Structure formats: structure tokens, C-alpha cells
Amino acid sequence: MKKRFLAGVFSLCILTGCSENIKQSALDVLPEPSEAAITTATEAVKEQKSEQPACTVPPQDLTISIEGKLEVYEKLMVKDVISEPQIQLRNGSEIIDTSKTGEGEVNVSYIYNDKLYSHPVKYTVYDTTPPVVLNSGGGTALIGSDFDLNDFVGFVDNYDPTPELTYSGYVDTSTYGEYPITATAVDSSGNETTWELSITVADEEPAYEDDNERLPFERFITDYADDNVSFGIDVSRWQGDIDFEAVKNAGCSFVIMRIGTYYDEYTLDECFLYNFEAAKKAGLKVGVYIYTTANTKDEIIDNAHWITEQLDGEKLDFPVVFDWEEFSNFQQYDMSINDLNEYFEIFADELEKDGYSAMLYSSKNFLNNFWYEHSEYPVWLAHYTDQTNYTGEYAMWQMSCFGNIDGIEGDVDFNILYNDKMKIN
What we know:
eight-stranded mixed beta barrel
């Protein structure tokens, strides 16, 4: 083949008047390598270099260090804190562990002067965030009672599950009167928050006066009518016997019902079984929520499994709602902000294993000051106002707890579902 090819070229040159002698070898007529082939070969060489055994001793003429102050729970990668221009990072996307304060180290892999290095670099994680006041307190201490400020205030720390509470001033529960005091919450890193409050010593708590206007369901759906919304209610045993046919005929589309509560032990809502069957029979979309005070990982996991056991494979139209509301004296649960946020995600993960999804319920205040942005889960916002100014993402809005609807005696919560934010089954 090679001889025939060269002979053909020689004949062509004679015919076209080529004057130069043909001295090409078979290799001379092979095509030159393409630019892509050269690039591939170059990358292969680089790859061979990168696969050489890494030097575990840092270069003497270069110092690699973590730049800046790392905050506890801050989401950082190696490339965020090392910006040495003379090196090529090999593990820039590796996550840095900031889950606890104090010294840590991360292994950094990089190329410097065509040589691969890999060695640990130390860093320090700090907590500079002071405790957050959830309930500034005040109120009435009964005459002759033992006074514990923890019963009157609520606070939490982002990191420390057990911040310390102290106060200056005094409260004499043997003597009637008003006692101004200054409270201070201090976390394990020395960050502190101070606030003023007043305790009144009296014979009894002041009577609650309910002067709230009631909202009829027909006015509710008229005031908030939109092609993108659906209207519903949420119920528990407090609503008593419910005529769900009347509820449906009033214009209600869905009902979220309490499946039970958890205060160290479970209680199935006494109306749940009836509510679930009757609401479905009436043609309403249904969902469930658990009111829980779980404060350990094991309890949270068990909460999720208890719910799925009660449902026993029943189909829901909404995600299962996680309802944790005991913030008034939150410090008594020995959890940090991060703890409960992690527990919610564990709850959601456990539900998913059983074929259900999760939704977070909370008020505007705690969504702003306590909960992280759990973007992969829908949020049910509680904010009792005509127009919410909450700026975070939410799929459903509980806008009143003083609603009146046919089929229910007394008050019930009214909710607006935004159909483009959460597709129900």
C-alpha cells in the first residue's frame, strides 16, 4: 500500500510539472495532529503530574494558611478561605467543618511549581453570635410562689444548647408590687444579651379579654379571591364535631388536621380518625400536622415513624406538617437554634423513607429569627394580619385564628394556599 501511494504521488507531480524531487517517506505524508489532539495529550501529561505521589511537607518558600475568621456553622469551602495566587487548588470544593468552636484542620491539596502538595492546614472556629430573646417576659408572679425567671422568659443561642440566665434587681413574692429587673443570657463563648422587664406580684393572673373581630368564611374568600389561590382551614379536637359537607359547601377546598401531640408521650387527637374520613368523604383535600415538643434526635425520628404508623399507608394531599411552637420558655428544652433546625431536616428525611414529604409551620417572628431557610421544603406561614409583610418564601398563609365557617361551632384557623408554590396531590 505504501509503495502504490508514493508511486501515485510521483506520477501526479510529473503531470503537474513539479520540479522538486520526491524524497518523502511514508511518515512524511501522514496528517499533522489536530489542535484537539495536542490539547488532549497536554492534559494527559498534566494528569500524570497530578497523579504523582503528593509531598506532605509544605514548600519552604510558601506559607498556606486559612484567611479570615471562621464563624460556627458558616458554610465554607477550601477555595473560600485560601486564595494564594501562586498555587492551583486541587480540592477547592471540599467543605470545611465549622460545626464546633475551637481548632480544626483541613487537608489542602494543590500544585505549586509543577509539584503536587497535600498537607493539613489549621484553622479556628469562633462563635460571636449572642443569644436571641424569644420571649422578653414580664407578667404576673403569684403571691407566695417560688420565683424562677426561666418561667417568664424565653431565649436561645445559635450554638450553645444551655446558655446561662441571670438577672439584677429582685422580686419579692411575699409582697405585692411591681419589680423591674434586668435579665442577661450568656452563652458558652461569652456572648451576652441583656434586656429589661417587669414582674408583678399579685393574687391572680389578669383575666384575658377577647375583643377580636371574627372573620366569616364568605368574606375571607371574597377579600382574597385570586386564580392562583385555594382556601382552607386547619382543625383539631378543639373544633369539636365538624360537618365537613357544610364546610365544603361554604367554599372550603382543603383541611389540615392535627394527627396528634407529643409531650414526652404520644396522644392521638381524639377527633383525628373521624376528621380524616369525613373530610375525604366530603371531597376535601387533606393533610396532617403533629404538635411536638421533641428535643432529641431519637425523639424526632420516632415522631416521624409514629405519624406514618397512624396513617398506615393512607394517601395525603399535603406534606406532613412539623409544628414546634414551645418557644416561650425554649431554654428549658436544652437545644440550640442549630439543633432544632437539624431535627426538622431529620424529621423530613425519615418521612421520605416512608413515602411522605414534610412541610414546616411557624410564625413570621420565628421564621425570621429562628428557622433557617429550608428551601427544599414548603413553608406554612402563620401571620395574623390582613396583609403579611413576611419576605421569605412560603406556600401557605394562616392569616386568622378567628374564622367562622358553616359546619363548625366557634373559631377556626383560615388558610390561603398559593397553588403555584406547592402542588398538592
